[in-house]
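Sequence only, no structure available. Ideas?
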Amino acid sequence: MNPEEVISSDGETVRVSINLKLATLVWLDDLKEAFGLRSRTDVLNRLLEELMPKEEEESDPPDHLSQEPDVSD
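Reply:
I predicted one. Tokens follow.
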């Protein structure tokens, strides 16, 4: 684990920092309102839980996630 990451007192969560495009941040805020959630963290957790494979499924990522990212900005 990176020294920059801070483990919460419950031992289950870590604090991370990410760089996002402004449009992505606006989208997260829209989702926060649409989902009725209190924070961007709650939105990201919800989205990531949807992507996370269930225990009975394979641990491989879905096909659309295993492709190389397009970095041609």
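The mean pLDDT is 81.
Hope that gets you unstuck.
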